[in-house]
Structures are given as C-alpha cells and as structure tokens.
Amino acid sequence: MDSSYTSTGHSSSNGGRVEFPGRTCFCGCTVRMFTSRTSQNPGRRFLRCPKLHLSTFSYLLGEKCDFFEWVDQHMCDRAGTIIPGLLVRLNQLEDHNRIVEVEKNRLSEENRLLYDCVVQLQVTNNALRYKLKLVLICAICCLLAFVWFM
What we know:
Layout: E1 5-7, E2 13-14, E3 17-24, E4 30-36, E5 45-48, H1 56-60, E6 68-70, H2 77-148
Antiparallel strand pairs: 1-4, 2-3, 3-4, 4-5, 5-6
C-alpha cells in the first residue's frame, strides 16, 4: 500500500483524521477514513486502523493492527484514467493558491505600510499648514506695522 492518502469524510474529526463512528478494527480502535491519492486507486476511500503504520518494534509488542478495508468499489478504467489528471490539476491549483495567498499577504503588508505612510503624511501636512498660517499672520502683522509707522 502506497502511503499517498489524505483524510476525508463527514464524521467527527480528531486531529485532522476522520474517525468512522461505530466501526472498530481488530484491536478495538475506532477506524479512520482516508482517500487514496495513488495512481492505482485515485480518489478511492478506505478505512484503516490508526495503528497500521506503527514501527516494527511496536508491531512486535502487539501494538500494531493490520486492519484495512476499502469503502468504495474499484473504479472503472475510464475513471482510473481521468482522476489522476484531475488530481494533478488539483495539486497545481493548490500550489497556485498557496502562491496567491503569499502574494496576498505581501500586498496586505505593503498596503498597511502605505497606509501608515499616508497617515504620517497627513500629520505632516496638517503641521505644515499650521506653521504656514503662523508665518502668514506674522507677515501680515509685519506689513501692517511697517505701513502704520510709515
């Protein structure tokens, strides 16, 4: 069995693994449902014991269970031809989505920095306007004083 599979289903989730309520394996554990991503059984769901992939040492101690059962029937040849291509496309789209997410985060950070710059420029602009008003008032007062004493 290739180790290429993902957890799937609509049952209660436990740490990213989907338990299949009411079903137990040879050792009494609640079985978990996964979806195969192998080229031989693409998209085919299966149940397995959570102890299936324990180490050889655990197996010798009796802590490993070999329970494995297909949930879905074997697919027709056409589905076996089409699904791997769809999985490749899905992986490409997921990769693209990760790239877009990174770019979105980068742009969000850049947007935040630009917003901070705009706020700082507004504060500076307001301060300069205030200083300009003071300079104009001083200039008008000097001009009036000059005219008054002439």
